[in-house]
Amino acid sequence: MNDNELERLEAQLRSLSPARPPAEFLQRLKSETAVLVAERRAQSALAARPAQPERTAARETVRASEPAARSSWLPLVLRWLVPATAVLVVGAIIWRANLPAKRGPETASTPVKADNVQIDQQLVSTFDAVAQLPSGEPVRFRCREWMDEVVLRDSRRGVEVARRVPRVEVVPVRFETY
Amino acid sequence: MFDHAPGLLLFARQQGRCEADAQDLVQEAVVEAWQRQADGAPPPLALVFATIRRRAADWGRSQDRRAAREAAAHAETPECWFDSSIEDRDRSRLIQGAMSKLHENYREVVTLKTWGGLTFAEIAEALEIPANTAASRYRYGLEELRKALGSKTLIESLRA
User: Fold this and answer.
1) Residue B39 with chain A: CB contacts under 8 Å
2) When comparing pLDDT for A47 and A25, which is higher?
């Protein structure tokens, strides 16, 4: 079979056109693809620029004309809206947490006014120490350890300030005493 | 895409389907191929043909579908693959008969090239074969067709 015969046969075959599909089938195919195209365009519009007005209008047109497209919109919107809302909420919480704590004007300016003061002294330990002077004379010291505590309370503002200070008391005991 | 619907349907019919199955096959393949397009643009024709072929193979694996299809095919009158006037009806039946007797490998390539409008590169992509193989199958397919049609018939048809 030479090239000439081949070309003639090709032309012969091409002269026949495939049978036209039934109109009902074409209609079904067109409606199916129309919905598909609308969904695809809506998805790409959402992915590209969600707030673009003209594409929003296109989406609204699709929503109004295609019930199937409408049903596919809800998950799309939810898929975008739910994470965005979650991000906003978390962002607001973090922002609030980082704000400097507000203090009342009296907290910053007015001093504490104590309406209740307690002073306490606790004897922690006591002992005697014996020493000897250079002249050979014995000396005795009475040693006491104290814990002094002062508590100031401002009941109006609910403030309590406590301070504990250790103190050592050394008292020489006269020779006549012992 | 809809301009190519006759070619797509012809290819689907040649996959051994009844008319109803062929239409379903085309519709599902078009939808599937379109869904793969991220921008919503029409899919490449080669991709649609490839999807038809793959789906036809998937359907063929199902024994239930096959039995139902064969029963339906027996019940239906045989569909005509080509549009033809009264004068060309015999010729189109002749070519359809010769095409249906072609080996599947040849028939696919001849159909995609002649009525699908694909290049050899696109046919290679659709059938997942090298382009050279597609070209040689096309030539062998035409030769087989000519043998099946017979030189006398061919000459007569060419004269007509």
Assistant:
1) 40-41, 44
2) A25
pLDDT at A14: 84
Tokens 């991709």, residue located: B47
CB contact under 8 A, A18 and B83: yes
Instruction: Give the count of Cβ contacts less than 8 A between chain A and B.
Output: 99
Query: By CA distance, what is A46's nearest residue in B?
Result: B39
Chain A interface, mutation test: which of B18, B27, B48, B120, most A Cβ atoms within 10 Å? B27
Report how far Cα A22 is from the mean position of its chain's Cα atoms: 61
ipTM passes above 0.90:
no
Cβ atoms A44, B123 nearer than 8 A: no
Burial annotation A29-65 (CB, 10 A radius, 16+ → b, else e): beebbebbbbbbbbbbbbeeeeeeeebeeebeebbee
Residues in chain A: 178
pTM, 2 dp: 0.52
